[in-house]
Amino acid sequence: MTKVFSDGAVNPLSVAPMMDHTDRHFRYFLRQLTRHTLLYTEMITAQAILHGDRPKLLDFSPEEKPVALQLGGDNPQLLAECARIGQDWGYDEINLNVGCPSDRVQSGNFGACLMAQPELVAQCVAAMQRAVAIPVTVKHRIGIDDQDSYEDLVKFVTVVAQAGCQRFTVHARKAWLQGLSPKENRTIPPLRYQDVYQLKKDCPELAIEINGGITQMEQINAHLHHVDAVMVGRAAYENPYLFATVDRDVYQKTDLIPSRAEIIERMLPYVEERLRHGDRLNQISRHLLSLFNGQPRAKFWRRTLSDSRLLASAGPELLEKALKAQQSQDILQPV
């Protein structure tokens, strides 16, 4: 079962799960730009869900939907239990991380290193699918280390698909498990989009989503001629206003495109509510820093929302004052 619309089509666009980025505040912020794009949590390990603070890890606002829970782990039974918890919590999809190459993740035998164990990934997927009625999907690389041929990719996908997975998000770079940092693994291995295109040709019955190095609407549209869906990663954080037009350009909706100022105004009630629940302003404002990138006085906006003196005791009024000052070049004084 894949994430589909009522007309049977796969959701064509998503924002990648990103550690320290795609928390509930960032997802709510993105919802002010796009109502339809599929959003993901940060990767959450099975152990954290089973033994940690579940409300802190899993709570989200209804406005964030559709939203998928990404899990990290390698134990089929534990992942199945977490999938059940995620479904009960209201998530629309459960995704298994088979792409993260960090040493910490490898030490737990999950993430990208699982590409060397497709049978184990298949067991995990099968167990999760038995546990839930919502889609179970996999995000992975095109390969790891010296297991990076197209044939290796097809073998991995074929084995996991036989366990029932129908949607695969493919980061079109291999991962080096040793010698490169996670950041370097996002930039140094060359992109191999053609491998992902070929995978879709060879496996037309599967929903194939492409990820890696996608930063512009023109790229999104070009990829959608070859695959079912596109996942955007860092660009969603570095240039979030890219998503202001996707409901029109990807989903053919006629909603008016919000201005940057309108987006901030929409965030104000949310900020006020979350502060009442004990969240700190900087936990939310850090996600808004890039909204004015490329615009006049963007540096002023970033500096204001990064000022610990201002953030320490301020509420949503700081966003209002920063917005007014950003537009008028007034000097914002500490509140």
From TrEMBL:
Its cofactor is FMN. The keyword Oxidoreductase applies. Keywords: Flavoprotein, FMN, NADP, Oxidoreductase, RNA-binding, tRNA processing, tRNA-binding. FMN binds at residues 17-19, 70, 139, 171, 211-213, 233-234. The active site is at residue 100. The record marks 97, 183, 186, 302 as: Interacts with tRNA. Its EC number is 1.3.1.91. It is an enzyme of class 1 (oxidoreductase). Residues 15-325 form the DUS-like FMN-binding domain. InterPro entries: Aldolase_TIM, DUS-like_FMN-bd, DUS_fam, DusA, tRNA_hU_synthase_CS. It comes from the Bacteria. GO terms for molecular function: tRNA-dihydrouridine20 synthase activity. Pfam families: Dus (PF01207). It catalyses: 5,6-dihydrouridine(20a) in tRNA + NADP(+) = uridine(20a) in tRNA + NADPH + H(+); 5,6-dihydrouridine(20) in tRNA + NADP(+) = uridine(20) in tRNA + NADPH + H(+); 5,6-dihydrouridine(20) in tRNA + NAD(+) = uridine(20) in tRNA + NADH + H(+); 5,6-dihydrouridine(20a) in tRNA + NAD(+) = uridine(20a) in tRNA + NADH + H(+). HAMAP family: DusA_subfam. Belongs to the Dus family. DusA subfamily. Catalyzes the synthesis of 5,6-dihydrouridine (D), a modified base found in the D-loop of most tRNAs, via the reduction of the C5-C6 double bond in target uridines. Specifically modifies U20 and U20a in tRNAs. This is tRNA-dihydrouridine(20/20a) synthase.
